[in-house]
Structure formats: structure tokens, C-alpha cells
Amino acid sequence: MATSQSIAPSFFSFLKEGVLLPTRNRRLFIAVGAIIVASTTLLLLGSDLALQPLADEIQLDVKALNGTDPGSLEYAKLVQEIQNDTKELLLVGAGYILFAVVVSSAVRILLLFATVLTYSGEQRATFSELLGKANAHLKGPLLTLAFVYVLEIVYIVFLALMGALLVVLIVKQYFVLLILASLLVLSAAISLVYFSFVCSFSVVVAVAEPGCHGAAALGRACRLAKGKKWQVVLFVAVTSALATVLSQVHTLARTCAGSSVALGLLLGFVYAVLMALVQLFAVCAMTAFYYERRENIDGQLGDTVYAKLSTEEANA
Known about the structure:
Elements: H1 13-20, H2 26-66, H3 73-119, H4 127-136, H5 139-172, H6 175-208, H7 215-225, H8 229-257, H9 261-315
Keywords: Membrane, Transmembrane, Transmembrane helix
Organism: Triticum aestivum (Wheat)
Transmembrane segments: 28-46, 96-121, 142-169, 175-208, 229-249, 261-291
């Protein structure tokens, strides 16, 4: 018996697939891309209209506070205004974060269904078919997303507590313990990047494999990503670099725009479009990475089974 040997994908192939995947069903991805742009624009407007004015007002009050006599009534008034604005900013910020999480999660799951649907061979699927598919298998990805959100929050809280411990060690001047704790915090911070990738990867698993969700999807994602840390590093580096560059360019452009509202809105829209493209690329690349790893592992299992059967036939 002869077995067909599949050519192993290159190190960068999943990134290439991340770029090319939307071209397999342009209509579908144009529709999904429009939703991403709309949601990103909405979140940017929400930040600019709800959060930024409060932050600017606090900044102005702090500047005024530095030039005011601490014993004057004006100083006490400024302190009270800063406290009130800070409380309001925290409340509005919490509401904004919750809203942003809900919106971004919904868009993320919809985009994942689009990429999985396209990559699995349904390259003529319409947007209505995508919605039907997502509605039929929504429970697993939602549970997985909620599960990994909780894990990431716990991880971040752990890092915050470790940071507080570092401050205590600095104050107490326990330098040996400080060095050890610093190494632990650094290691945990680096591991957070990989952990965040695996958490995101588990949502891909939940979408691509109905019935596998929550801890099972996370475990499956860990097994698929095992031994591919440099590809994970490459993915994180590329997507982070793109997002960082766009963010810096957007900040610089807004500074240059000055007080022009029309130009500011235009720049915000352009930034939303570019960030939508980055998000689209990231999700497509992660989906391609999933199928690449799944095919590789399934192929290895098939070779193992074939070798076992061949051995049994030879010994018979």
C-alpha cells in the first residue's frame, strides 16, 4: 500500500492565508468588514464623546490646581471638581468598557464564523447563511469567550497583586526577594502574551468544532499550539506592530488636525477602516493557523494508525 505525502506548510503560510482568505468570498467579507468598520467607528465616537471630555476637564483642573494657593477656597473647589469628575469618569469608563466588550465580542464571533465557513469550503455562502450558521452554533463560542475572559481577568489581577508585592518589597528593602519576585512577574507578564493568544485561539476552536467549548476548547487550543511558539510569537509581533503603528499615526494625525471637527471625523473613519483590516487579517490568520495545525495533527494520527495496521498485517 502507498500513502500520499502531504507537503508541510511553510512557517509563514498562515499569515499568507490570512491575507488571501477574504478573496475567496469577497461579498461576504465586504459585508462583515462593513460591520467591523461601523463597530470600530462607534467605539471611537463613544470614547471621544463620553470619555475624552471628562479626561480633558480633569487635566485642566489639575493644571489649574498646581497654580492655586492650597489654603484658598478656589483650591478646595478644584479638588472637589477633580474628585467628582474622576468618579464620573470611572463610572462612564466602566460602562464604556462593558459596551465595548459586548460589541467587540459579537463582531469577533461573527467574523470567526465567516472565516471558518469560508476556509471549510463554503466559499459562496451569503451573509444570511452566515447569520443562520452563527445563530445555530452560538452557544459554544459565547461560553468559551466568557470562560477565557474570566481567566484573563484572573491572570491580570494576579499580575496586579504581584506588582503590589514588588512595591512592598521595595519599601521594606528586601532586595533578594525583590529580585526573585521581579523575575516571577516578568515571566508571568511574558506568559500572559502566549496565554492571551491561546485564549483567543480557543474561541476559533469553539466555532470550528461545535460541541467543543469552554475548558475543552482551551485544552484543544493548547494541544494545537503546542510546539509552535515561534509562529505564535510571529503572529503576535505582526498584529501588535500593525496595531501600534496605526495607533501612533492616528494620534499624530489628530494632533496635526487641530480643532477641525470634519478632519478629525475623517481621520477617525480612516483609522477605523485600517483597524478593521488589521482585525480581519488577525482573525483570518488565526483561523488559517487552526486548520493548518489540525490537518497536521490529523495527518500524524493517520500515519500512526497506518503504521500500526501495517505492523499488524506484517506480523499476521
